[in-house]
Amino acid sequence: MITGAFYLFRLALAWTLVYMAASITLIKLIFDDGDQIEGGWVVFGGFVLVSYVIVVAFSHLRRVHLIAGRFNSSTVSSRQRRQIEVPFEAGEAFDMVDAAIRELPGSDQVDSARDSLQVRARVRRIDPYAAESGGMRLARLLGVSRNQILAMVTPNDGAGSLMLICEPARPAWTDWFLVDDGTNLENAEAITRSLTRRVAQRRRSEQADVKEAVTEKELTVAKLNLLHAQVEPHFLYNTLASAQILTRSDPARADEMLGNLILYLRHSMPRTEDALSTIGAELERARAYLDILKIRMGSRLMPQIQVPANLLSVPFPTMMLQTLVENAIKHGLEPKPGGGTIWIFAAATSGTVSVTVADDGRGFSQDGGGTGIGLRNVRERLNLIYGAGASLSIVSNFPEGVAATITVPAIGVDQPQKESANHV
Question: Which of 327, 331, 332, 319 is nearest to 382 (CA)?
């Protein structure tokens, strides 16, 4: 209340002093000493002027209170200054400020300089009390037709610090006589609200992106687990059936087969999420699998494994080597009379490691092909884990058979050693 009363008093006093000075000057120039009649009219005119100024100033205070919910020395002023911290990089903060100013009603002249992070704008004042006919009101004589905005963004440790000035497009000394009906306060509040909305919208978008990324990762992990779970179940049944038969005829070989099966299953235990295995661990599983099949197939299966010892610790996706080995046995060697040889070897090149499974079986014959589910799963899992950084290639082996090669990024490759992990 004290601020409002002081504002009214200041405006009325300024106009009274100007009116008195103008009246005294006119009386001295036009009349001789000014008689009582002229003096009475001067007093009456001053009373009318001051009354009107108080009414206009009161309307200004009332509208400020409607906009801000309060009035003090800051809100009643026709020149508004804001210091706003925008929690984004200065360039992005500038784009938000520029867009907020351009969207203001009556904004028809905006000059922005992104390099200097500065925006200047002229805003047509929308008179809140103008008549619907659009005719000129006397109140416009105490107002201003245009406002101006200056916005400067300063980089501040990864954020943008905005200095915003909204003021009438007239000299500052005129504030002693003229009001803006709270239009600059309205502009400052509108820009602040717009920035708040844009920051909140950006935060919601970031949260949605994070949620989408988490969901996508969960779906990826679930898909990896599903692909990992698609292991040929007949192998387990056939191995147990063979071990059961051998317990009667050859207990020692049955015990060896069950030991290899235990080793195979231990390496097949599910891993946490999409954690990678190693070439060494996958090779142990493949060895156990081949040892079991060698007991079943006898001399019809000849495994040859050549993997440098320095590659055993290289990360490698689980069950992929096993899938290639199973395909080579099932579609290449088992259907071939007399069986054959399966080779497993690995090599490191510039930035990648390649693991190849080759056989001299039936090759790409019509009778030797399968459904392709296993190889399709391998490709999908490679894409999910490495993207374009890994590949699966399948070519004909010479003179017969198939060679399948998985290439993955080389991570943690040790220096080559003389020994290799060889197994015949």
Answer: 319
Identity of the amino acid at 106:
G
Domain range spanning residue 111? Answer: 81-129+136-175
Segment holding 165, helix H or strand E? strand 159-168
CA distance 119 to 97: 8
Q: Which of 114, 108, 179 is nearest to 143 (CA)?
A: 179
φ, ψ at 164 (rounded to 5°): -115, 130
- Report if residue 274 sits inside a domain: yes
Dump pLDDT digits (tens) for 291-315. 888 887 888 889 999 999 999 999 9
Q: Which CATH number fits the domain that encloses residue 283?
A: 3.30.565.10
Nearest 5 degrees, angle CA 143-CA 103-CA 173? 25
* pLDDT for the residue numbered 34: 47
**Are residues 244 and 158 located together in one domain of the fold?**
no
Q: What is the pLDDT of residues 133-169, one digit of tens each?
A: 343 344 455 555 789 999 999 998 888 999 999 999 8
Q: What is the pLDDT of residue 343?
A: 94
State the total domains in the chain: 3
Do 366 and 293 reside in the same domain of the chain? yes
